[in-house]
Design brief:
single chain; alpha/beta; 8 helices; globular
Length: 172
C-alpha cells in the first residue's frame, strides 16, 4: 500500500515510500516527520543518526525499542531533505494522511510517541510542541505523547534532558 503510493510528487524523487516498520503488535509506535536520506536508502524509518539516538534513549529507559513500530507522517523523502532542509508542506501531509491512518490501525498499538512539531500537527493541528511536549493526550483512540524530534536533540544538545524527561514519563 505505502510502497506504491503516488498521491503526491514526492514519490517521483524518493527511492520508495517508507512504510511503518516493526512488530505487528507493537508495544508503541514512534511517529516522525519524514524519511531522511538514510531512511530513503534503507526503506525504514528512524534508522539514521536521529533514529539511533532515539533507540538508545528508549533502551536506557527499558522501553524496548525493538518492540516498537516506527513510521512518519510523510512517507517519502521531501525534496531538498539534506541535513536540516526539511521541506514538508501541508499538501504532503494531506496526501499521506490515509497512509498514516492505515498504518496506525495495522500497528495494533494504542500508544504513540510523536516526535517533532510537524508530526504533532497531524494529530493536534492547533498544538504547539513547546507547550504540548511531555503530556499525554487521548486523540482518536490513541494515547500520545509529543517530544522534540531526536534530530533536534542532535543539533541542540541542551534539548536532550527535556527529551529524557519526557521519555521517563512515557516509560511509566
Amino acid at each position: 500500500m505505502v510502497r506504491n503510493c503516488t498521491r503526491c510528487e514526492l514519490s517521483e524523487t524518493a527511492k520508495a515510500p517508507v512504510p511503518i516498520s516493526g512488530p505487528l503488535y507493537a508495544r508503541y509506535v514512534v511517529v516522525g516527520q519524514s524519511p531522511g536520506q538514510i531512511e530513503d536508502h534503507k526503506g525504514q524509518a528512524f534508522v539514521g543518526p536521529a533514529g539511533r539516538l532515539l533507540r538508545k534513549l528508549l533502551d536506557e529507559r527499558g522501553l524496548e525499542p525493538d518492540k516498537a513500530a516506527y513510521m512518519n507522517v510523510v512517507s517519502c523523502i521531501p525534496k531538498g531533505n539534506k541535513e536540516d532542509k526539511h521541506k514538508v508542506e501541508r499538501r504532503h501531509l494531506e496526501a499521506c494522511r490515509y497512509n498514516v491512518e492505515i498504518q496506525l490501525m495495522a500497528s495494533c498499538s494504542k500508544y504513540l510517541l510523536v516526535c517533532g512539531g510537524v508530526a504533532l500537527s497531524q494529530f493536534m493541528p492547533n498544538a504547539e510542541l513547546k507547550w504540548a511536549k511531555g503530556g499525554f493526550y487521548s486523540i482518536h483512540g490513541f494515547h500520545l505523547m509529543p517530544i522534540f524530534h531526536p534530530s533536534f536533540v542532535l543539533k541542540e544538545k541542551n534539548a536532550r534532558p527535556d527529551v529524557e524527561h519526557c521519555l521517563n514519563i512515557f516509560a511509566k
